[in-house]
Amino acid sequence: MKKTLLRKSWIPALLLAPVAFAMKEAGAADAPGRQAHLSGLTARITLPNGTVQMAKLEGLGCSQSICSRVAIKGKAGDNSLASFWLDSIAAIKDTTENGALLVMKDGTGQRISLVTDFRVLYLANQSRSPEKLDLTKIKSLEFLPPTE
After folding, report:
1. What ranges do the domains of the chain cover?
2. How many Å apart are CA 16 and CA 37, to the nearest integer?
3. CA 41, CA 69: separation in Å to the nearest integer?
4. Which helix (H) or strand (E) segment is 4 a member of?
C-alpha cells in the first residue's frame, strides 16, 4: 500500500519537472545580462516599382510557415550559416535573387546569401490580413523605431 502511494506521488513530480525547467528557461531572457529580442517590428517596405507599404513584420520563413519571429539567417561571406537579430537591423537593401545587404543599426553592412527557410516575409498590414512577400521581390525594407 505504501509503495503504491509513494509511486503515485512521484509520478506527478516527474511529469512536472520538465515544465518547471522550461518555465525557468523562458524567464531567463528577462534576467539581467540576457537580452530579449523584439518581434512584431514595424517596417517600411519599398517595392521595385516605387510603391511604399507599411506593415508589421510577423516573422520570416519559407513559403509554408514562419521559421523565426526575431531573427533572419543567411550564409555569410565564408559560406557559413549566420543569424542576425531583426531588432539589430536598420534596413535590408539591395536584394537580389540570391542575396541581400543587411544594414545594421550601428551603420555597418553585412551581405548575406538568402537561404530557403528565411526568404519569405510574413506581414500583417493595416487591414490586419496576413500577407506573404518574398524578400527577393522588394527593393528595400526599413525597420521603424518602436512606438511606445
Report:
1. 1-35, 42-143
2. 28
3. 9
4. helix 2-28
Provide the residue-wise pLDDT of the chain in tens; the chain has 148 residues: 556 555 555 555 444 444 443 433 344 344 444 467 777 788 999 999 999 999 999 999 998 889 998 899 999 888 899 999 999 999 999 999 999 999 999 999 999 999 988 999 999 876 666 789 999 999 999 999 877 6
DSSP state of 129: -
Residue type, 63: S
Note the residue count of the chain.
Answer: 148
CB contact burial 107-142 (16+ within 10 A = b; e otherwise): eeeeebebeeebbbbbbeeeeeeeeebebeebbbbb
Q: State how far the alpha carbon of 126 is from the alpha carbons of 21, 47, 71, in Å.
A: 39, 17, 23
> pTM to 2 decimals?
0.70
Identity of residue 17? A
Q: Which class for 38: exposed (0-12), middle (13-18), buried (19 or more C-beta within 10 A)?
A: middle
Residue with cell 502511494: 5
